[in-house]
Predict the 3D structure of the following.
Amino acid sequence: MTAESAKAFEALEGQARDLVGLFGRAGYEFVAPAILQPASVFLDQIGEQVRARSYVFTDLAGEELCLRPDLTVPVSRLYLERHPLADAEARYCYNGPAFRFQPLGPSATHPREFRQAGVECFGASDKAAADVEVLLLATDAVRSAGLSGFRLRFGDIALFYALVDALDLPERWRVKLRHYFWRPPSFHALLDRLAKGERITPNGLVTALAEQLAGKGQAEAEDVVSAYLDAEGIPLAGNRTLREITARLLDQTADLYADTLPKEVATVIEYFLAVSAPPREAVDRIAMIAHGAGLDIDAALGVAARRFHLLEGAGIDLKAATFATEFGRKLEYYSGLVFQIEAPGMDETEPVAGGGRYDNLLTALGAPRPVPAVGSAIHTERLLAAVGRASS
Amino acid sequence: MSAPSLVIAVPSKGRLKEKAAELFDAAGFTLRVKGHERGYRGQLDGLPDVAVEYTSAAEIVHQLRSGRVHLGITGEDLVRETVHDVDGRIAFLMPLGFGHADVVVAVPECWLDVSRMADLEDVAEQFARNHGRGLRVATKYMNLTRRFFAKEGVTGYRIVESVGATEATPATGTSELIVDITSTGTTLKANHLKVLEDGLILKSQAHLLASKRAGWDARARELCERILSSLSQ
């Protein structure tokens, strides 16, 4: 990265001071989490692809560290340091650098070192109200920085989960669909097979054991597997338990004997994931798809509708916004609303701000109980560039 | 003494060193170590302006990448693991028929429910649910592993770097599965590991390699041609 001029630096700093000032007046306490983070937190929660996007290195003591790729995880860790019991409501704001490796080389809109200013809201039990609070704060912030004519894009992971819950499927298939949702290529391969009514054929070993396993409960099946391992002289290794190995063998046995899944399941999911429209229209369309398939996801749709109602009540014009069911499939820690703010003339891949709800992250980071959480971050360089372009 | 027209890097120890010497011998250019027997420079009989440098198999990759040597002999696994933009930097001139090693994905034999790469993603999901973390893959091939797993759509894992006795890590509990080299499979079998049906990442052997970044003047190209045609006979 070339050194930035003093003027550009001062402009960014000035903008950041204003943003953080606005967050502070809204009741968000300023925090400054560590820039160097233990890499294992990110590797365990996000996976090995973090390495392809982050600066991960080993220090002289052999500890794997990374330059934080975002501030949500560091701020969440800070919350847990302050509230180990995860029993307090807290609102934090921040401004500081984050770092991402850019495989195509750093560019003005995809720099490898950039600054994020944002907010995180932990423990607020009225989720829809907290979603709206954070989203309004983000739109107020970019507006106060001088941005106008921006577009909003929404998604809602909870709707997909509700749809999967409502489908008439064996639980093992629900687990698969929920997990693969975050891995679009594998997900589409899976849907393809469903649509064709293809059977998932297990390996030869499973087929050989299936006869002994069919119809057995977990405990009985474990005896079968244990006896087989003993007879073959195979020890248990690799940290997976006999219970886990047996559970998957039972799932595979069930697939072997079960009817293939109805093709309609794939069709409903495909229709659902094709929805992209202004929010109210999108909610109606999803309701139509669900009712057409005889599925009840009214509760999740009600939550989404209420959220949009609150937003409109607060003066947000949703007619120009987009709600896309596919949106937000990148970061697995999101669990509900996801959104981003797009400046005029900048495309979907370079939003000036983004955020969402991540109710499962804090337990994954070690919280002793679930903590509802929602946050938003502003890409400050992009915001400054977008405002500058509009005024020139 | 004038600077050599062509520099070849050759492994400095082990079977790769012996095999490389046999290879040049058979081609009619006997390899001679300069000075004492364990020196690090050598020459090819009949080619006085070719310098031979003995160095480690891993270092040869770096020398080729940066263009400090023209030619080198080392394993394809090391080249593909170490060099990010292989095609722009190194040319594979000739497979040499020795140093065979397969880079494979191996899991504990007791994972009766796992036989293919696609199983790993489901196992990762189950493992994360029960243990609160992803699968750990022990390997020294971090880049080959990452690329292969990404291609196969496996995401729920992390790599733990292992420089020795990788095959023992699932039994000791520091990993769940491994990516390692195998030639006969006996070591894996002895450690109660099995290779996944579609878990072959690379069928590696020693290659004669050329650096695209070295200074290739007319004489260097001519020498390279001569060596190459003698080796292919």
About this structure: The longest helix of chain A spans residues 6-25. The CA atoms of residues 262 and 282 of chain A lie 26 Å apart.
